[in-house]
Design goal:
Layout lengths: L1 E5 L13 E5 L2 E8 L14 H18 L7 E8 L2 H6 L1 H12 L5 E6 L12 E9 L9
Parallel strand pairs: 4-5
Antiparallel strand pairs: 1-2, 3-6, 4-6
Helix pairs in contact: 1-3
């Protein structure tokens, strides 16, 4: 499998994402939108966007690892937030959490402010879904 980041010189230089990712080979894994629920279904980080972002990345990592993948296999992320300005205000801290999990791996990304999330009533402030391309055999069957 090979991944090629596509950042044309005719577009602005991306910061913290890639304009596109070309993939050759591998298996596609579509990751459902994840919110900051822990294993027991309890919300982590009530009212704390950064803590919720951290838990969501842990949840995405769990799905990837269940199929033999890693966060660096992500080729597309879509981030849904209830408050874009709150996300921007915490951007530096969110970026630190992102780099702790993914280093300098920047898939194609989209950030969307939404009017509501399915789990908003439970306190969810954001939801992230993704697409990954895996080239390793699965670690085992999901539960």
């Amino acid at each position: 499998m090979s991944l090629t980041v596509v950042n044309p010189e005719t577009l602005p230089r991306p910061r913290g994402y890639s304009h596109g990712v070309e993939v050759e080979g591998g298996r596609l894994l579509f990751l459902a939108g994840q919110v900051a629920f822990d294993r027991d279904g309890a919300l982590v980080g009530r009212g704390d966007l950064v803590a919720q972002f951290r838990q969501v990345l842990q949840n995405l990592r769990a799905v990837l690892e269940a199929r033999g993948g890693a966060l660096q296999d992500l080729v597309k992320l879509t981030i849904y937030v209830l408050d874009r300005e709150a996300y921007r205000a915490r951007g530096r801290e969110i970026g630190e959490v992102y780099r702790a999990f993914l280093g300098r791996h920047y898939p194609a990304m989209t950030l969307v402010e939404v009017r509501g999330l399915y789990d908003q009533d439970a306190g969810a402030l954001l939801e992230i879904e993704g697409v990954a391309v895996l080239d390793r055999p699965p670690a085992g069957e999901g539960r």
